[in-house]
Structure to design on (575 residues):
């Protein structure tokens, strides 16, 4: 009986693991193609290269005239850091207000906020673009950064849910000790909401890193290009003539997402399970 | 007095959100509705043309017709398959077994990376005539087509990419499955119920709220898919409009042809389509979504 169960369990794990690895096969292939000699990329069937070369990486990095991939990474990084700070700060402020302070029309505002989650971005896209165009912000980072400072409904909701789980007695005793609302927010509720804030930060980082559409619309000067735009430009300009370099840059472009994911795994699972984000 | 101080604090903390709501949601929505009745190219002032944009959409614009067909095909195939895969894997992983964390990670990685330009680039290669997918098929003795270049098949490469990203939905299902009381299964086992019966009578009904949630979210997201179609078709939606997802066509109209009035009208049509789908889901939910806490 025990042996029977062990065999069953073995097959079970083999199946689950095998299927998972099969799914990831394209990603492994990408990784392997990026270090294979050019002649081998499409001819050899196996994953393991006959020799490992990093020339695709240097070809890709310096592959565009007048600009290097480092610039794209720097731009993306700046954008992401600002987006994370803006989103976490503004979303947590709104969440604190919704979760802890009573004021007229609160329920209406909360409903409106949830409504914006369901609204397809296309409806606001064009007027937003026109507005940013009118004030001369197109082709700067501002249209991509400023909207992050007004909070993101998804994360407001996530943080509200989290704050509601913090005992209200803390607020009472803080107030008796003479804490104002700001001190309560900044010194007590924020530190206790750290897991939710980290979740919001991680998702914001990844969302901004991969936000191809917004960056495509607002940025046209190559010096301001981000990683997704740079990668697309590189694909268009060298494309089939140098797949190895395109693959190498593709690999580099997903490294930050992977690193953040592995560092913050437990927050990820929580965040997805609460809000259904990302996907 | 104290009361008003509290109100003031509440509004103050809400101020950034409120400013955003006014400038990034409320006024753009109104402006977008207005623009949809105009011709506007950013350079000259918007010109009121009544329902002309909508008339053109329904009578003249065959590309829009193609685009809507392609988008429906994409949504109606990718959403059910993505959910089915996610549920199947979630049930498999929910056996309380070892290495759950590892497996969850493995299956989540495609979701994590799937929206990036890099994966779309890779996908272009995977579904090439000589690509990975056809290499796999050739092992089975099948000679696959050139998925990306053949208008009959191109959309399936996008659907495949979308289904491949089932990991995040799976994690939500896993969380839902954990909520189902084990005693129900134990009792059913004592009564001699088969696996299928347990699935149909316990798992599925108790999971309907999560299915409803996933269905709604995935549906809304799928209607707005852009990056995959843009990268894989090189921004054209080709071959012969076969990957011209709605968002891509809206982008082409608005930002390539600078026909902002028409693109706004398209945005409203999309809003109506999405609202219709989610509306049907919400209205029918009382017949098929089961809330165990006694709500209807």
């Amino acid at each position: 009986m025990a042996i029977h169960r062990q065999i069953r369990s073995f097959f079970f794990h083999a199946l689950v693991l095998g299927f998972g690895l099969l799914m990831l096969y394209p990603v492994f292939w990408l990784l392997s193609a990026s270090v294979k000699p050019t002649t081998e990329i499409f001819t050899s069937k196996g994953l393991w290269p006959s020799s490992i070369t990093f020339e695709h990486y240097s070809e890709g990095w310096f592959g565009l005239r007048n600009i290097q991939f480092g610039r794209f990474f720097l731009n993306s990084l700046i954008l992401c850091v600002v987006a994370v700070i803006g989103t976490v700060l503004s979303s947590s402020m709104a969440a604190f207000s919704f979760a802890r302070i009573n004021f007229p029309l609160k329920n209406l505002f909360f409903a409106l906020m949830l409504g914006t989650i369901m609204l397809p971005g296309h409806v606001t896209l064009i007027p937003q673009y026109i507005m940013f165009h009118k004030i001369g912000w197109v082709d700067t980072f501002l249209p991509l950064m400023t909207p992050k400072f007004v909070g993101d409904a998804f994360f407001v909701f996530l943080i509200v849910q989290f704050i509601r789980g913090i005992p209200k007695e803390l607020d009472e005793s803080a107030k008796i000790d003479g804490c104002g609302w700001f001190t309560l927010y900044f010194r007590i509720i924020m530190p206790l909401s750290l897991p939710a804030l980290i979740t919001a930060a991680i998702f914001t980082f990844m969302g901004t890193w991969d936000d191809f559409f917004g960056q495509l619309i607002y940025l046209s000067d190559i010096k301001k290009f981000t990683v997704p735009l740079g990668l697309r430009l590189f694909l268009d300009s060298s494309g089939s003539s140098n797949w190895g370099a395109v693959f190498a840059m593709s690999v580099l472009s997903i490294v930050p997402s992977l690193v953040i994911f592995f560092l913050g795994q437990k927050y990820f699972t929580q965040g997805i399970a609460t809000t259904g984000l990302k996907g | 007095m104290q009361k008003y101080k509290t109100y003031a604090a509440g509004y103050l903390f809400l101020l950034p959100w409120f400013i955003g709501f006014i400038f990034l949601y409320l006024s753009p929505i109104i402006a977008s509705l207005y623009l949809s009745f105009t011709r506007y190219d950013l350079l000259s002032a918007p010109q009121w043309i009544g329902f002309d944009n909508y008339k053109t959409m329904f009578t003249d614009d065959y590309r829009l017709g193609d685009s809507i067909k392609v988008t429906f095909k994409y949504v109606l195939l990718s959403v059910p398959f993505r959910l089915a895969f996610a549920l199947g894997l979630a049930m498999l992983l929910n056996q309380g077994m070892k290495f759950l964390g590892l497996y969850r990670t493995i299956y989540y990685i495609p979701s994590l990376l799937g929206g990036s330009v890099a994966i779309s680039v890779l996908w272009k290669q995977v579904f090439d005539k000589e690509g990975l997918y056809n290499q796999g098929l050739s092992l089975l003795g099948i000679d696959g087509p050139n998925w990306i270049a053949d208008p009959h098949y191109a959309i399936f490469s996008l659907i495949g990419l979308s289904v491949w990203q089932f990991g995040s939905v799976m994690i939500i299902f896993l969380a839902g499955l954990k909520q189902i009381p084990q005693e129900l299964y134990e009792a059913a086992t004592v009564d001699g119920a088969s696996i299928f019966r347990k699935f149909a009578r316990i798992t599925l009904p108790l999971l309907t709220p999560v299915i409803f949630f996933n269905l709604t979210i995935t549906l809304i997201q799928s209607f707005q898919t852009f990056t995959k179609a843009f990268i894989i078709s090189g921004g054209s939606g080709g071959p012969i409009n076969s990957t011209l997802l709605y968002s891509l066509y809206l982008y082409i109209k608005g930002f390539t042809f600078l026909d902002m009035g028409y693109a706004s009208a398209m945005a409203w049509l999309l809003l109506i389509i999405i609202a219709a789908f989610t509306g049907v889901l919400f209205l029918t939910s009382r017949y098929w979504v089961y809330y165990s806490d006694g709500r209807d």
User: Anything to note?
Assistant: The radius of gyration of chain A is 24 Å.
